[in-house]
Amino acid sequence: MFDSPPLAGPEFSPLVNFPELGRLRGAATGRDWPTVRAYVSELDDPDMRATAGRIVSETPGAEEFLTGVTRRDKGDVMARVLLAGTLIHVGWSIRTGATANQVSADQFTRFFGYLRRAEKLLIDVCAEDPRNALAWLHRLTTARGLQLGASETRRRYERVAEHHPHFYSAQAQLLQKLCPKWGGTWQEAHGFANECAAAAPPGSLSPLLVAEAHLEHWADRDGPSYDLNSPAAQRELTAAVHQTVMADGFAGDFHWIYAHGLFALVFSLGEHREKAAWHFQVLGNRGSEMPWNRIDGDPVAAYKRHRRAALGRG
Predict the structure, then answer these.
(1) Does the structure show a pLDDT above 80 at 217?
(2) Are residue 36 and residue 161 in the same domain, yes or no?
(3) What is the pLDDT of residues 68-106, one digit of tens each?
(4) Are residues 106 and 46 in the same domain?
(5) How far is the C-alpha of 298 from the C-alpha of 296, rounded, in Å?
(6) Domain containing 75: what range?
(7) Which of 146, 149, 157, 140 is nearest to 115 (CA)?
(8) Cα separation of 306 and 314, whole Å?
(9) pTM of the model
C-alpha cells in the first residue's frame, strides 16, 4: 500500500482562482477606465461588486489613475466610489493591522487623513445615490477607522440594509465593530451574527458571520480561552454550513473559496478534522489569504498545516 502523494499548492491569488478578476486587474493596471467601469457596473450582486472594487483599489497606481478619472468627469459616481475605496486601502495599509498601541502617531495622522478624504467623497455619493451599496460599505469602514462610535456605525449599516438586507460584506464590517477590539462585546457580536444568519435565505453568505464571530472570539488573546469545540459552538457552526455551502442554490460567487476555507479553519481549530476534511476536499488546491492570516503570519503554511492534519497529506 502506497502513501498518497502530497497535494500541490495552494493557489491563493484571486486573480488566478477567478480569471475574470485577473482581467479586471489587467484593465486597472492599464488604466482602461471604460473596461473597468463596464465590468464593475454590470455586477448586480453587491458582494460581487465589493470584491471587484477591492481588486481595483489594490492595484498599484490606482490612486493616481482614479484621481485622474474623477478630475476628467466629476459626475462619475463609480469613479468616486472606487477612488474612495482606494484611499481607504492606502490608509489602512499605512495603519497596518497592528493593535492601536503599536501604531505610531505619524501613522495615525496619515491614516486618518486618507479616511477623511474618502469620507468626503462618500458623503456626496450617498446623498446623490442613497442605494449605492458599495459607497455605504466604505462608509462603514471609515466609521470604524475614524472612531465615529457604535451608534453612527449602526446607523450607516441600517441605511444600506434598507435596500440590501442580506449584504454580507456590510454585515461583516458591522460585526468587526461589535467585537471587543473595536469597543463592542462578544454578546453583541455573536448576537448580530446569529440574527443575520436566521434572517438569511438558504444558500446566502450571511451565515458565514456565525463562523467569523467564533473565529474572532477564539483569536481574542486578551480574553479568556474560548472553546471552539463546545457543543453550542459546534451546533452553530454546523447549522451555518448547512445554511451556506451545503444549501441548494449556493453559488458563493467570488466568496466560495473563502467560505470553505473559513469552515475548514474553525472546524480544525475545534479539532473536528473530519468535518474540516470535506471543505479541504472541495477546495482542492485553492485557497485565500483570509481567514488563514488570522492565525498565522504565513497563511499558506497555516493552510497546509491544517489540511495535512485533516486529510493526512499536503
Answers:
(1) yes
(2) yes
(3) 999 999 999 999 999 999 999 999 999 987 778 888 999
(4) yes
(5) 5
(6) 31-172
(7) 146
(8) 9
(9) 0.93
